[in-house]
Amino acid sequence: MNRDQIIAAMRSTLDKMKAADSEESFKALQGEYDDLQKQLARIDAVESAEKMLADSLPVPEQKDSGDADADADAADAYEKACKSLAAAARKGFNEGTPADGGYTVPEDIQTKINQWKTVGVSLDDLVSTENVKTKSGERTYQKRGAGQGFSSIKEGGKLPKVTQPQFERIKYEIEKFGGYMFATNELLDDTDANIVGTIIEWFAENRRVTRNRLILAGLNSKYTRDADPETAKAISSLDDIKKIINVDLGQTFAPTTKIVTNDDGLQWLDTLKDKDGNSLLKDSEKDPLTQYVSIGFRRVPLRIVPNEDLPTDPESGIPVFIGDFRESVRLYDRNAMSIMASNTAAVGTGEDAINAFDEDLTIWRGLLRLDVEPLDEKAWHKGHISPASSAANAG
C-alpha cells in the first residue's frame, strides 16, 4: 500500500476501534492499527532517504542549447543515479536493524505489571481456626467411648460404680514464619508501576501458600509420623469411596464429610457415571461454582486444590482426603500477617548481608505466627487413586 492507502486504512481501523463492543475486538483492531503505523513509518524513512540522497547528487552541467544529445545523455545518467541510490536506500533502511531505520519505529513497551491468571485456593475455611493470645497452650477433650450403661439394682441394694469418662489434651506451639524483599529507592522513585502494591500482593500469596502447606501437612500427619503411622487407603472405584464414608467415617462424620483432591482427582471423578450414563459429578443448585459427588443417597461436597499445591505422586497416585475437616485439623492463629518496611534495616549475613541505609534500599518484612495441629484422627482418611485406575478411566 502507498501512503494514502495506509492513512485511509488507519482512519477506518480507528473508527472500528471506537465502535468495538468487546475487549477482544478492540485489542485485535489495535494490533492492526499498530501494524499500519509501522508500515507508514517505513515509507517515511524511505522517502526521507530518497530526498536526502537526491539533494546530495551534483546537478548536471548545463550544455549549449544546440547540443541536444548531450543534454539527453546527462538527464538519463542523472535519472539512473537517483534510481540506483533510492534502491540502495530501500535495501539499507530496515526495521530489524536499529541503526538502519529501526530507531524510527516505535516499540509497544508497557511498564504496567501484568499478571498471569492463577487460582489462589485457600484451605483456611476448610478447617477450624482458633485465634490465640499466647505462644503455646493445651486444649482438653473427652476421649471417645460409649458408656456401659447402668446396672440393675434390687430393692435396698447398693449402687455399683460406673465407668468414668477419660480425657486427653491437644497441645499447640506457635511458630514464626516470614521472609523479606527489597528494592532500590531509585526504582521506587522513578517507576510508574505500583511496585509496593505488587510486593504486598506477593507477601499475601506467600501467606496463602504457607497456611495451605501447614494444613495439608496436618492432614498427612497420621500417615507420616514415626510411631505407628496409618496406611493410606487404595481407591480404584466409587465403591471404595463409599466404604470410607459409610463405614470408616460412619454416622459420626459422614453427614458433614467433604472430599478434597487435586485436578487429576477431579478428572477421575468426572469420568464416573451412574447406570444411566449420567455423570456423578454435579454442580450445586444454590451455587454453580460448588460441586458435589453423588455417592449413593449422599451428595458429598467437593473441594479441588490445583496440582501445583497438591501434586500427584507418580508411584502412589492421586491424593484424596475424605472426612469432616473442621474436626480433623485446627489452625491456631497468633495474629494476622504483619508487613513492615524500613530504609535503615540490615538483614542477612556474610555475602547475603544487605544494609538498607548504606545501599539506599527499602526492605519489606513479612511475618506470620501460627500452628496447625491434628485433632480427631477418626474424622478423616486419606486415599490414593492408583495410576492404573486413573489411566484406565482416562482411556
Automatic annotation (TrEMBL):
Keyword annotations of the record: Coiled coil
SUPFAM superfamilies, alphabetized: Major capsid protein gp5 (SSF56563)
Chain intervals for the UniProt region annotation (Disordered): 137-157
Pfam families to which the protein is assigned, alphabetical: Phage_capsid
Record protein name field: Phage major capsid protein
Domain Phage capsid-like C-terminal: from-to ranges: 101-379
Ranges in coiled-coil conformation: 19-46
